[in-house]
Amino acid sequence: MDKHISWKDYYSVGEESLDAQHKQIVAILDDLYHVVHVGGEQAEFKRLLDRLLQYTVAHFEHEEQMMQACGFPDFDSHKAEHDQMRRRTLAYREHLELITAHDLLRFLKEWFTEHVRAQDQCYVPYLSAAARQQRSAIAPTQAIGPIDRLGQTTAG
Ligand SMILES: [Fe+2]
Ligand SMILES: [Fe+2]
């Protein structure tokens, strides 16, 4: 079994907030690896698992909002994967006696790396298209900015 997990550039979805959240999930997974390998207390393992769950659920919500905002067509099936992951991790958390820490960690790591590389990458073109559109919509507003300020100065 690997002794740690680290961020890889190919996990990137090219969007700052989502990359930051994915990096944070990798960091929590790495802490879990550490606890499992140094034979840490089960209480510490549970604490990190709770943190992972809490953080992942918040990330899923953010990612789902972003997918909807950019009109990602496979939103429903992507959300279904998130929901299934949420349910499975919660079930493991409730029944830690049924699975070893090694196996649970392997499941979490495989799910995360596969999901980020295969599923999350699918929304990347939609997200970048929406970002480009937003930039071109913002440009004219910025262009009239100085005129507005000039108008205010004249009026005042
Ligand atoms: Fe996702
Ligand atoms: Fe994600």
Key structural traits:
156 residues; mainly alpha; Four Helix Bundle (Hemerythrin (Met), subunit A); binds fe (ii) ion; 5 helices
CATH topology: Four Helix Bundle (Hemerythrin (Met), subunit A)
Q: List the total number of helices.
A: 5
Main sheet summary:
none
Overall mean pLDDT stands at 88
Q: What are the secondary-structure elements, in order, as H or E?
A: HHHHH
Per CATH, the class reads Mainly Alpha
General description of the model:
The protein has 156 residues and is mainly α. It has a single domain (14-155), classed as Hemerythrin-like (Four Helix Bundle (Hemerythrin (Met), subunit A), Up-down Bundle). It contains five helices and no strands. It has helices spanning 16-37, 42-69, 75-94, 101-119, 124-155. It is elongated, with a radius of gyration of 21 Å. Residues 63, 78, 82, 115, 119-120 line the site of one fe (ii) ion.
